[in-house]
């Protein structure tokens, strides 16, 4: 089946925007399978919209239209078996931004479209549609790129440049507790490593990758391995082909339409929690803690529905607020862990900022973090692992924070270096002279 717009598409021009890595790879695979087929939908729009109207993230599903035969579709699936291919899903859509696509021609990508106005709509991020049946598709695009302009939609301001996004976020912060920062001799080499890392770190937004296709879990998805859980989550929130999950639906609804800081580039709390779950890696934690860790990750920013701007506040708020949505299948022990994880999901990040900025309200030193880690009724290293795991998922879901991921082992080293130490505790200046 061929999309109606493609049957009328007589216009084409070279792609002016740089291709994302995903789009480039998919276009080459598509050319091998069927040179006449066209890449459409979010995977095609990402090169125009990522970092401009929303975060830089790969498309979870890849839409293809105009593919000539079932054999060509089989070839494409064989070339990339873990891509979520969708064939002619958008064939009947009246959404203007979905009436265009990309294909490979003469060793370069080109944009194919039917209406001349489409070029300006792409540049302006202007969404239009004429059928009520297209509201779900339009909503999908607005969730991916909240800076898009559409009737009845308040376009979110999106700051694409990393430093500008961080400056804007800091400018909005207010309140917070200013704690004294003190350190032990054992932490000195880790502090030096932290300083060196920040001096040479390449600060730039990084693309949030798409999750590869995997088999759906046979049993409890919240207890499944990571690949199975991610596929189940996508099946419910993106593909929407699975049987509704009451807790997931409730948790997502509670976080929708609540904005984040400029570093999140327009994604609301719900979309961020969903993406953090896709980025979550539970390999280092006990299987018995998977359910609690996934629930906490999904809801880790729920406190932002009450307070976005006070450093460190939303974790404590969320630790109480999430319990309104507690699923009946969580045990009391798991629920206690969820509360602790939500309250402390940003410990490494608050410590990093606290060490580098004595004036940052909400900042922590390693001793503060150890004290908080010790409130969990688990062995110290196990508690640190849980805290680092949810923090890693959090920053991995944000393009303007992903550059911090390689710093995580140093932050963990700092937390653990002074474990069991009785001091003395010194300021950075005193430590330098000790």
Query: Portion of residues in helices?
Result: 40-55%
Major β-sheet annotation: 3 strands, antiparallel
Strand order of the largest sheet: 1-6-5
Task: Kindly estimate the percentage of residues that lie in beta strands according to DSSP.
Answer: 5-15%
DSSP E strands, number: 6
Q: What pattern of helices and strands is seen along the backbone?
A: HEHEHEHEEEHHHHHHHHHHHHHHH
Mean pLDDT: 95
> What is the SS-derived class?
mainly alpha
How widely separated are the two ends?
A: 74 Å
Protein model, in words:
The chain is mainly alpha-helical and 434 residues long. Strands 1-6-5 form a three-stranded antiparallel sheet. A three-stranded mixed sheet has the order 2-3-4. The protein has 19 helices and six strands. It folds into two domains: 4-144; 165-433, no CATH class. Helix content is 44%, strand content 6%.
Write the layout of secondary structure elements.
Blueprint: H1 4-8, E1 11-14, H2 21-33, E2 38-40, H3 41-49, E3 61-65, H4 70-79, E4 84-87, E5 100-105, E6 108-113, H5 117-124, H6 135-144, H7 162-172, H8 188-200, H9 226-237, H10 246-255, H11 269-279, H12 290-298, H13 313-321, H14 332-343, H15 347-356, H16 366-373, H17 380-396, H18 408-417, H19 428-433
Parallel strand pairs: 3-4
Antiparallel strand pairs: 1-6, 2-3, 5-6
Helix pairs in contact: 2-4, 8-18, 10-11, 11-17, 12-14, 13-14, 15-18, 17-18
Key attributes of the depicted protein:
44% helix, globular, 6 strands, 434 residues, three-stranded antiparallel beta sheet, 2 domains, mainly alpha, three-stranded mixed beta sheet
């Amino acid at each position: 089946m061929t999309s109606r717009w493609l049957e009328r598409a007589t216009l084409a021009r070279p792609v002016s925007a740089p291709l994302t890595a995903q789009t480039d790879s998919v276009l080459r695979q598509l050319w091998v399978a069927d040179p006449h087929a066209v890449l459409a939908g979010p995977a095609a729009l990402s090169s125009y919209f990522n970092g401009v109207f929303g975060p830089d993230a790969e498309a979870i599903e890849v839409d293809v239209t105009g593919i000539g035969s079932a054999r060509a579709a089989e070839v494409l699936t064989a070339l990339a078996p873990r891509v979520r291919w969708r064939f002619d899903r958008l064939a009947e859509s009246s959404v203007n931004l979905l009436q265009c696509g990309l294909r490979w021609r003469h060793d370069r990508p080109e944009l194919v479209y039917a209406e001349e106005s489409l070029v300006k709509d792409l540049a302006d991020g202007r969404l239009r549609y004429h059928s009520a049946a297209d509201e779900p598709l339009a909503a999908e695009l607005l969730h991916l790129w909240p800076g898009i302009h559409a009737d009845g939609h308040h376009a979110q301001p999106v700051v694409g440049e990393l430093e500008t996004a961080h400056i804007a976020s800091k400018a909005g912060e207010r309140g917070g507790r200013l704690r004294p920062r003190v350190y032990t001799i054992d932490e000195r080499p880790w502090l030096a490593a932290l300083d060196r890392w920040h001096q040479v770190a390449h600060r730039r937004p990084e693309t949030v990758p798409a999750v590869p296709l995997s088999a759906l879990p046979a049993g409890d998805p919240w207890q499944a391995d990571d690949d199975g859980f991610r596929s189940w989550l996508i099946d419910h929130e993106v593909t929407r082909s699975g049987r509704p999950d009451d807790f997931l639906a409730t948790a997502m609804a509670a976080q929708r339409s609540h904005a984040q800081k400029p570093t999140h580039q327009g994604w609301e709390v719900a979309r961020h929690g969903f993406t953090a779950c896709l980025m979550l890696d539970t390999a280092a934690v006990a299987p018995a803690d998977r359910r609690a860790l996934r629930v906490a990750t999904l809801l880790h920013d729920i406190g932002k529905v009450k307070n976005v701007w006070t450093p460190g506040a939303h974790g404590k708020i969320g630790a109480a607020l999430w319990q309104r949505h507690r699923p009946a299948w969580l045990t009391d022990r798991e629920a206690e862990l969820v509360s602790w994880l939500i309250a402390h999901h940003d410990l490494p990040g608050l410590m990093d900022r606290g060490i580098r900025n004595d004036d940052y309200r909400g900042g922590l030193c390693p001793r503060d973090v150890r004290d908080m880690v010790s409130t969990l009724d688990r062995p110290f290293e196990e508690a640190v692992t849980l805290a680092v795991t949810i923090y890693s998922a959090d920053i991995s879901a944000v393009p303007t924070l992903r550059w911090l991921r390689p710093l995580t082992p140093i932050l963990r080293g700092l937390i653990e270096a002074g474990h069991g130490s009785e001091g003395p505790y010194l300021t950075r200046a005193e430590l330098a002279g000790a």
